[in-house]
Design goal:
Chain A: Belongs to the RPF2 family. Chain A: One of its GO terms (biological process) is ribosomal large subunit assembly. The complex is a heterodimer of chains A (about 280) and B (about 350). Chain A has about 280 residues and is an alpha+beta fold. Helix content of chain A is about 25%, strand content about 30%. Chain A has a domain of about 180 residues: Rossmann fold (3-Layer(aba) Sandwich). In chain A, the strands form two sheets. In chain A, strands 1, 2, 3, 4, 5, 7, 8, 9 and 10 form a nine-stranded mixed beta sheet that branches. Chain B is mainly α and about 350 residues long. Among the domains of chain B are: about 80 residues, no CATH class; about 40 residues, no CATH class. Helix content of chain B is about 45%, strand content about 5%. In chain B, helix 8 packs antiparallel against helix 10. The longest helix of chain B is centred in the middle third of the chain and has 27 residues. Chain B is elongated and about 155 Å long. The N and C termini of chain B lie far apart (about 145 Å). The chains are: A alpha+beta (about 280), B mainly alpha (about 350). At the A-B interface, strand 3, strand 5, helix 4, strand 6 and strand 7 of A face helix 1, strand 2, helix 3, strand 3 and strand 4 of B.
Chain lengths: ~280, ~350
């Protein structure tokens, strides 16, 4: 939806700014998530998706987390994300075990809005397609805003996902930086909660085609490759120069007395000028 | 020798100390982890040991795994160049490497408007105008456009009536009307640009069709349509009851009023000669046609007499002869050559 597509023009500057903020951009906004609590009936579950798409357009949220519970699929989470206001992929996770923040008594939990460290462990996250996609969704959910710099002392929260034995263990720990004697600190972890034991249920993944379009990088953001510059294995930089042919006739060589222009030539030049002078007079 | 050995000892001790220190932050893994420091992200591709997992307490196993991975990630993050900002050590994170899907599609370039296309063709460039201009009336700098702008003609309380215009005309209303029309025109152009960008059919500014075309108008339109083919209607078939078009095709051609006098003079003289001459004029075409008809009739009468004897063969010869004669004489079926036609 570009500006041109809109036949009805925004009437005020404010609405224009608002619509512009919703337009596709080269570097995108941080993705927002909405978290929806489902009812018990299956009808709500089916209708929920429609609502999610509707609300995603209203509130400009491209991530959603839908929680529901029924007999067939008790304690159900649906993690999903949108592309262009349509569902790109969804993954259903069942909660097998849940320990909340309050249950784990820790004197200090980490402050809100800290950017967590994310660690995925297990070969499944690399080899199995659904798990790899789940990893991508979870990164999207939990990575927080992209920042250019981070305070090293502020790294105090870690989310650890382990794919093991057909289950996914999500644990969140508080990071304690201990002195190690060298610059890099030694890490100790303290369980903080919440922690989940998930089991993978149904999945609804985007087709490869759509997934590819969603990953398309704008041309403007791609780094321009520099012409005529190359690097070898050792990191040495090579450049190729293109030079025009040198004019050897005008090359300045060593000045010598014998090669100097003769005096007669100079005199002729003066003679040519003199009649003009006389005319002026 | 004693001092040198002591130096070696000191060095060895320092090395050992260093190794011990590193021991506390070193973690051994079968496969190296994949890091994306921009996202503070690590992927451990090693398969966790199931036997250990079942033997140990679950939580302890997970925590020790998490600790090792976290230590490796922290080691990686600490390698990033740091900076000191307001007394806080800040690590400059590189750009994230992990590709995640976009939220919305890549923005498309805006299609150029008609004016932009024209300006590009002519090489017209946008020139930036200053936002503020000097207002002579109020003696201050004011905005060029919008509210409280300089030289605001809507704020005039008196307008001079131009000499050429009607003295009773409302000049204020005229200005408002003109403004409204400009706005409407701009809006129309904007919509046309949208339509053009989407390749929609634009309502043309050509002749509008009349409400009730008359019979003659319809006939004319039909004729024009028939002729509007690549072969100028040559192979166009006629409808069963269609009449031939009237008053089409031939056009009278006149000699130029001023031109070659000698030919004109010759023509006039020839005409006078014919009118004045006693001798009957010979119309070659007419004469030839007459001759041919007579020959045909003669042949027909001869065939009727000898029909029983000769049969079909005789018919063929007779006809062939007639045709041959016709062709030699310029033919009945042929078009008259230029200048040979009836006058």
């Amino acid at each position: 939806m570009t500006t041109l597509d809109r036949v009805a023009k925004p009437k005020t500057k404010r609405s224009k700014r608002f619509l512009q903020s919703r337009e596709p951009k080269l570097t995108e906004n941080v993705k927002n998530a909405m978290i929806i609590k489902g009812g018990n009936t299956s009808e709500t579950v089916t209708n929920a998706l429609k609502d999610i798409e509707f609300f995603s357009k209203k509130s400009d949220c491209s991530l959603f987390l839908f929680g529901s519970h029924n007999k067939k699929r008790p304690n159900n989470f649906v993690f999903g994300r949108m592309f262009d206001y349509h569902v790109l992929d969804m993954i259903e996770l069942g909660i097998e075990k849940f320990v909340s923040l309050k249950e784990i008594k820790v004197n200090a939990s980490c402050p809100e809005g800290t950017k967590p460290l994310l660690v995925f462990a297990g070969d499944a996250f690399d080899t199995i397609g659904e798990y790899a996609r789940l990893r991508s969704i979870l990164i999207d959910f939990f990575r927080g805003p992209t920042v250019s710099a981070i305070r090293l002392a502020g790294l105090e929260h870690i989310l650890h996902f382990t794919a093991l034995d057909g289950k996914i263990y999500m644990r969140s720990y508080r990071v304690l930086l201990k002195k190690s004697g060298c610059r890099t600190p030694r890490i100790e972890l303290e369980e903080m909660g919440p922690s989940f034991d998930f089991i993978l249920r149904r999945t609804h993944l985007a087709s490869d085609d759509l997934y590819k379009t969603a990953h398309k990088q704008p041309k403007a953001l791609k780094p321009k490759n520099k012409k005529n510059v190359s690097h070898n294995v050792f990191g040495t930089k090579f450049g190729r120069l293109h030079m025009q042919k040198q004019n050897l006739d005008k090359l300045q060589t060593r000045k010598m007395k014998g090669l100097r222009k003769r005096g007669g030539d100079v005199m002729q030049g003066e003679d040519a000028v003199s009649p003009k002078k006389s005319r002026d007079e | 020798m004693a001092p040198s050995s002591s130096i070696e000892e000191v060095l060895a001790k320092a090395e050992r100390d260093e190794a011990e220190k590193l021991q506390s932050i070193r973690v051994e893994k079968e496969l190296e982890l994949e890091f994306d420091v921009g996202n503070l992200l690590a992927l451990d591709k090693n398969a966790p040991d199931l036997r250990d997992f079942r033997a140990q307490k679950k939580e302890d196993f997970l925590r020790s795994l998490a600790r090792d991975n976290a230590q490796l990630l922290i080691n990686e993050i600490w390698k990033v160049p740091t900076d000191r900002l307001d007394g806080v050590v800040v690590a400059k994170l590189p750009d994230p490497v992990t590709r995640l899907p976009r939220e919305k599609p890549v923005p498309k370039p805006k299609p150029p408007t008609k004016w932009e296309e024209f300006a590009k063709l002519k090489g017209i460039q946008k020139r930036k105008k200053t936002n503020l201009v000097w207002d002579d009336v109020h003696k201050e700098w004011r905005r060029r456009w919008g509210y409280k702008r300089a030289k605001d003609d809507t704020k005039d309380w008196v307008i001079e009536v131009p000499e050429t215009s009607d003295p009773n005309e409302d000049q204020f209303a005229k200005r408002i009307q003109a403004k409204k029309e400009r706005v409407a025109k701009n809006e129309l152009n904007r919509l046309r640009n949208i339509a053009r960008a989407h390749k929609l059919q634009l309502p043309g500014a050509g002749l509008a069709p009349t409400g009730q075309p008359s019979r003659s108008e319809l006939a004319k339109a039909e004729q024009v349509a028939k002729l509007s083919t690549a072969s100028v209607g040559r192979f166009q078939e006629r409808l069963p009851k269609e009449k031939a078009p009237k008053n089409t095709g031939k056009r009278r051609k006149f000699q130029p009023n001023i031109g070659d006098f000698s030919t004109e003079k010759q023509k006039q003289l020839d005409l006078l000669k014919i009118m004045d001459g006693k001798k009957p004029r010979l119309d070659v075409t007419k004469a030839v046609n007459k001759q041919m008809r007579e020959e045909d009739m003669e042949n027909a009468s001869r065939q009727r007499k000898g029909a029983g004897k000769k049969g079909r063969k005789g018919h063929f010869t007779g006809k062939g002869k007639g045709k041959g004669a016709g062709a030699a004489a310029g033919g009945k079926n042929r078009k008259p050559r230029k200048g040979l036609g009836k006058r």
